[in-house]
From TrEMBL:
One of its GO terms (cellular component) is membrane. Residues 19-333 form the Acyltransferase domain. It holds the Pfam family Acyl_transf_3. The chain crosses the membrane at residues 57-78, 93-117, 129-146, 158-177, 184-203, 215-232, 239-255, 261-278, 290-309, 315-337. The keyword Transmembrane applies. Keywords: Membrane, Transmembrane, Transmembrane helix. InterPro entries: Acyl_transf_3_dom, Acyltransferase_3. GO terms for biological process: polysaccharide biosynthetic process. This is Peptidoglycan/LPS O-acetylase OafA/YrhL.
Length: 377
């Protein structure tokens, strides 16, 4: 009897099942909804979500984003040379991030700070906040949101940015040593890494496994498993029995700090399984292109709604007000920033490749017959 593998399902959907778009949108909505508890009631008010029966859901959202990202970028890594791949990732992440950081610092921050404009611009935190653009995360701006339940935090969601950069750094090393061309070897390496981290978290420094919020290491593992699942897509069966088994295993492992890292492969399986579904969810699927913007703008807008509007102080009303604002910000980000850079990616990649070849020629010598690489997403 033939098995329904990841490869079979992808080929049946023309290479890009619609479920991935729906899943990206749902995860972005879930991030905003989840944050309403801390936005409105503080970190203590959110703690019961992380330690109670909803813990598996909370621990799934961000790792699922990473698993989805790993699975989708693996194809780009195989289709393109390393310079093109890295350039495409930078074009995807940095323009929208940079604009969001500057909007938070120079529009939202100025609008809601409790300091005078002179004190705001002379505050050291303003300029350290700008380092978020290059992945050095800072959460505070001078006098901003200081009376909110999560005091002084402008955008807590930026904690994931360094881990995403770590993922691309690891993937770059993997490409340089050629491990991405050895699918089984790559998966074995990820499993060995997973076992090492699991042992270290159990018998070593237990600060790796946080009681609240999924640890960054779990997100990185899910990213790497996502890459691995793509590389061995012709070998991994996809069916409801394995999905339910993964759900049970994931739920059991994620409740304990010592075993949370063992949940990574099961979280990844569930993510890819759901993403491979063909059914398109009306409205939800169409929001996929805005998911990154919602992810970036959701938290600062939720904080602003809480501070500025009496109606924004209950979790449900905060969500009902802030999510449409986040979606509007994400739409502007897509149409004014992300899409424009996406349309220019061929010329940006060509410039990056020319720079690479110039540097290589300067240090190594000219490369005869070198053409221009064309990015294939």
């Amino acid at each position: 009897m033939s098995r329904t593998t990841i490869k079979c399902l992808m080929e049946g959907a023309g290479g890009r099942p619609r479920g991935f778009d729906s899943l990206r949108s749902i995860l972005a909505i879930a991030v905003v909804l989840w944050h309403t508890s801390s936005i409105c009631y503080g970190l203590d008010g959110e703690a019961w979500l992380w330690t109670g029966p909803l813990r598996p859901l909370g621990y799934f959202i961000v790792p699922a984003f990473f698993a989805l990202s790993g699975f989708l970028v693996a194809g780009s890594l195989l289709r393109n040379d390393l310079t093109t791949f890295v350039t495409l990732r930078l074009v995807r992440i940095y323009p929208a991030l940079a604009v969001e950081v500057f909007i938070s610092a120079f529009i939202i921050g100025i609008g809601v700070t409790n300091l005078g404009i002179g004190d705001y611009f002379t505050g050291r935190r303003l300029y350290s906040y700008l380092l978020n653009v290059i992945g050095f995360v800072h959460y505070s701006l001078p006098g901003v949101f200081t009376e909110n339940p999560v005091a002084g935090v402008v955008n807590a969601q930026l904690w994931t940015i360094p881990y995403e950069l770590y993922c691309y750094g690891v993937l770059t090393i993997v490409a340089l040593i050629g491990l991405c061309r050895r699918p089984v070897g790559f998966m074995m390496a990820v499993v060995i890494l997973n076992i090492f981290i699991l042992i270290y978290a159990t018998y070593g420094d237990d600060t790796l496994a946080f009681a609240v919020r999924p640890p960054g290491g779990l997100a990185i593992l899910c990213f790497l498993y996502g890459v691995g699942f793509y590389l061995v897509r012709d070998k991994i069966p996809m069916n409801w029995a394995l999905f339910i088994g993964s759900l049970i295993a994931y739920t059991g492992f994620v409740f304990f700090a010592e075993t949370v890292y063992a949940s990574a492969v099961f979280a990844t399986y569930m993510t890819i399984f759901l993403g491979l579904k063909k059914k398109k969810i009306p409205l939800i699927s169409g929001m996929a292109k805005y998911s990154y913007g919602v992810y970036l703008y959701g938290y600062p807008l939720q904080q602003m709604v809480y501070q500025s509007l009496p109606a924004g102080k209950a979790w449900w009303s905060n969500f009902l007000i802030s999510f449409p604002l986040s979606l509007a910000g994400a739409a502007l980000s897509w149409h004014l920033v992300e899409r424009r850079f996406d349309e220019k990616k061929k010329s940006i990649v060509a410039a990056a490749n020319r720079l690479r070849d110039d540097l290589r020629a300067r240090w190594v010598g000219p490369i005869p017959g070198r053409g221009v690489d064309t990015p294939r997403n």
